[in-house]
Amino acid sequence: MKKASEYSQLKKKYHKSLDELEAYLKQQGYAAGTIEQFKNYTAYFFNWKEQSSLEVITYNNLLVYIDYCSLQNDSTRLINRKLAAIRKYYEYLQHKGAAIKNPASGLFLKGTKKGIPNNLLDKEELQQLYANYQVYDLRTARNKVILSLIINQAVTTGELDRLEPIHIKLNSGKIEIPGSRHSKGRTLKLKASQIIELQQYINKTRPAILKTIKEETIRPARKVKELNLAELERKLFISLNGSLNIKNSLLHFTTSLKRLNESVRDLRQLRQSVIAEWLKTEDVRKVQYKAGHKHVSTTERYQVNNLEDLQEALNNHHPLQ
Q1: Running DSSP on this structure, what letter comes out for residue 115?
Q2: For the chain, which residues make up each domain, given as ranges?
Q3: C-alpha 209: how far from its chain's center?
Q4: Tell me, what DSSP letter sits at residue 168?
Q5: Is 274 in a helix, a strand, or coil?
Q6: Where are the beta strands (DSSP E) in the chain?
Q7: Which of 132, 144, 167, 263 sits between 20 and 30 A of 207, alpha carbons compared?
């Protein structure tokens, strides 16, 4: 059974407990994609717990669970994500008033290293990617605006999902990017061409997308079960199928960018490329602010003289043995 379909079935099985957890996570301010990830991993844990005939979970039980996950060929990073979901579930139970200990508190696997940004695109390649991306319908018009914000303001995919029209200040030519648990908020200048582009998107493209969703004039491959128009109208970027999460839209968008430049890996790589370009001409503290990094050490990972130095550093951290 594939993991995606397995998670889907398990979420249906434990939907009552997961719905209550979801409400708690929303109150905590988690993004829709993060909440779905927590629900997936929590449902997976519930199933293991049931199969193991365990009522009360202890630290030692979780060590057995870690071994079980390892046997499923889960990576260290994935296991740590699953443990984080368990931690959050027990935090939720404690929030409800349950007098229990959190068995996953302080439990994580060592061995994950922050990767050094590599295989980055240079400024010319980024600009060429934008120039070559053709607009021919509502979807591509939306995607072109998204690409512009990535290669000019290094906006993350999470930030794209959280942006609202009120964050675009056309009169002052600025964008207010809201912060999160992982990034700092910041206010950045828009280029003159972006102001025109965003004005067109906000006044024409976005309303047209909302209209197609309401009137169902476009039949998407995947259709959401229940539309939440109030939430959709709050968002700056909207999936044409009416989903509150634009993750799938961004995945399809990335595929189209790969056709234009085979060096493109994902949207995160484009953001990393922009940050590396900034550091060639700007102070590290200024770049830290523009990138929304909470720690300057994160920004300094991009501070290399050229890609050859970057590759040498990569090899030193990950020797081929």
Answers
A1: P
A2: 3-95, 123-316
A3: 22
A4: E
A5: helix
A6: 168-169, 174-177, 186-189
A7: 132
Token output for 251: 């995945």
Q: Going by C-beta distance under 8 Å and a sequence separation of 6 or more, which residues neighbour residue 249?
A: 139, 237, 239, 240, 243
Q: What is the pLDDT of residues 6-54, one digit of tens each?
A: 888 888 998 888 999 999 998 888 888 889 999 999 999 999 999 999 8
Burial of 143 (0-12, 13-18, 19+ CB in 10 A): buried
Task: Specify whether the CB–CB gap between 46 and 64 falls below 8 A.
Answer: no
3-state SS class at 224: coil
Structure confidence at residue 306 (pLDDT) = 41
Report pLDDT for 316. Answer: 54
| pTM, full prediction | 0.64
| 3 state DSSP class of 169 | strand
Question: At CA 251, angle to CA 246 and CA 257, rounded to 5?
Answer: 125
Q: What is the CATH number of domain 123-316?
A: 1.10.443.10
CA distance 155 to 148: 9
How many angstroms separate the CA atoms of 146 and 117, rounded? 22
Number of Cβ atoms within 10 Å of the Cβ of 166: 9
Q: Which of 55, 54, 42 has its CA nearest to residue 13?
A: 42
Q: Which fold has domain 3-95?
A: DNA polymerase; domain 1 (1.10.150)
d(Cα 321, Cα 319) in Å, to the nearest integer?
6
Strands 186-189, 168-169: parallel, antiparallel or unpaired by DSSP? Answer: unpaired
Q: What angle do CA 261, 197, 274 make, to 5 degrees?
A: 45
Q: How deeply is 256 buried, as exposed, middle or buried, from its count of CB atoms within 10 A (0-12, 13-18, 19+)? A: middle
pLDDT (tens digit per residue) in 189-241:
999 999 999 999 999 999 999 999 888 765 555 565 667 888 889 999 999 88
Distance CA 45, CA 243 (A): 27
